Inverse folding.
């Protein structure tokens, strides 16, 4: 910190228009691993080895400096918390159809983020889950004639863009349900 009589230097004292901030819920949840996202490509990792070496637990001056410098961040799925539960993320794209089919109602309320593209990321802790699941509609089709892609449940080797980050559309990823991450039990 520069010599400013104990105050934060001016360039960090006010939030800039497009500055990304890590929300308290993310900052205060043990077990989350964050990665740097490329500044010119809003959904690609900025560093190689992000699954093994280049991911960060908070507090981390490396990820926080990246964000202050104008970068987005991602949250990795598949890493365990202190109870040994792995993080999975339900990347729900077609919300109306998922509700109509009753899929969203089967999951407990949890930390939920509205994506920049209008979908949702729902975060869960789980034990005994070890793969990615892609959800397709069994009736509705997209413009190409393929079954409509509804979303994905992400585990190891996958990530989502973190809340507070800015989508390529200019919209911000924002928390819409600010509760603790729910735990799902597989029976």
């Amino acid at each position: 910190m520069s010599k400013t009589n104990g105050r934060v230097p001016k360039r960090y004292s006010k939030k800039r228009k497009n500055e990304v901030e890590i929300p308290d819920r993310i900052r205060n949840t043990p077990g989350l691993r964050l990665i740097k996202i490329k500044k010119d490509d809003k959904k690609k990792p900025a560093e190689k080895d992000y699954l093994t070496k280049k991911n960060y637990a908070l507090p981390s001056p490396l990820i926080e400096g990246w964000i202050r410098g104008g970068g987005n961040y991602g949250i990795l799925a598949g890493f365990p918390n202190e109870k040994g539960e792995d993080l999975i993320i339900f990347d729900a794209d077609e919300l109306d159809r998922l509700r109509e089919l009753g899929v969203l109602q089967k999951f407990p309320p949890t930390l939920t983020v509205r994506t920049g593209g209008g979908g949702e990321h729902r975060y869960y802790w789980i034990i005994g889950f070890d793969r990615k699941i892609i959800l397709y509609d069994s009736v509705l089709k997209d413009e190409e004639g393929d079954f409509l892609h509804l979303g994905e449940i992400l585990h190891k080797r996958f990530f989502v863009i973190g809340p507070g980050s800015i989508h390529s559309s200019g919209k911000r990823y924002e928390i819409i349900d600010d509760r603790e991450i729910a735990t799902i039990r597989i029976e």
User: Anything to note?
Assistant: Helices lie at 10-13, 24-27, 61-68, 95-100.
